[in-house]
């Protein structure tokens, strides 16, 4: 399999030095998907580890060690395929496809397999309570199929090409490494719970204004610590303050990368307009740039013959 811009380092001239390459990649945010994923999850995962340390510290010696061992075992188990499936069931209520669902999705799965994004490359899961027509990637190889796609195929409301476009988009994102794995999601769960609880407070105008002006508080704090020569605490304040700016930036870049990776996969296989239809049915607002990207060089035909034509011989 060849290198792609979606999941590899951006190609650079051999004459460029390592430092110049690093600076250019950081400044343009042309970094690997794994690096973006870890950067976006750095603060949530650190918070989760801190919660574990605090809870373990409040327990007795044997119980604390047992909790730490259980966390390590769960992390190892969640890194496997079985663990990812169990985590998907808990996080998104995603279960294995039933016989009738497999029958309804068979034409779409056939199109997925023709472009190399179908089972067993990915594991399809059904989420009856999932709204919309757009499939969701989970972990490294799980695609969660919303109930509307299955019912639409059963009743002939949608075409197999539209269903395949929705599934291929999610499969490409999952395989690209943009999505956090089940183990990383476990460590980020306390942070996600905290964000959900604090959402009403964060929407208050005064709170939003205070957050936007945090740089002033940080500047005053750094100045006071420098005068007091408390260099260790100063370093901690600077790192935390920088994280409040860099992590949201990494999240935004990662969100754009997810769109670009999935869009590129459906466009190159002639399914761009069909995925655009799935977005429209789901009520997703599509920018002009993304609309042009999904419809570029992909004349919509009555049947997805272009999908078959782009598959290498002997696939």
From TrEMBL:
<feature type="transmembrane region" description="Helical">
    <location>
        <begin position="38"/>
        <end position="59"/>
    </location>
</feature>
<keyword id="KW-0472">Membrane</keyword>
<protein>
    <recommendedName>
        <fullName>Zn-dependent protease with chaperone function</fullName>
    </recommendedName>
</protein>
<keyword id="KW-0812">Transmembrane</keyword>
<feature type="transmembrane region" description="Helical">
    <location>
        <begin position="233"/>
        <end position="250"/>
    </location>
</feature>
<keyword id="KW-1133">Transmembrane helix</keyword>
<feature type="transmembrane region" description="Helical">
    <location>
        <begin position="65"/>
        <end position="87"/>
    </location>
</feature>
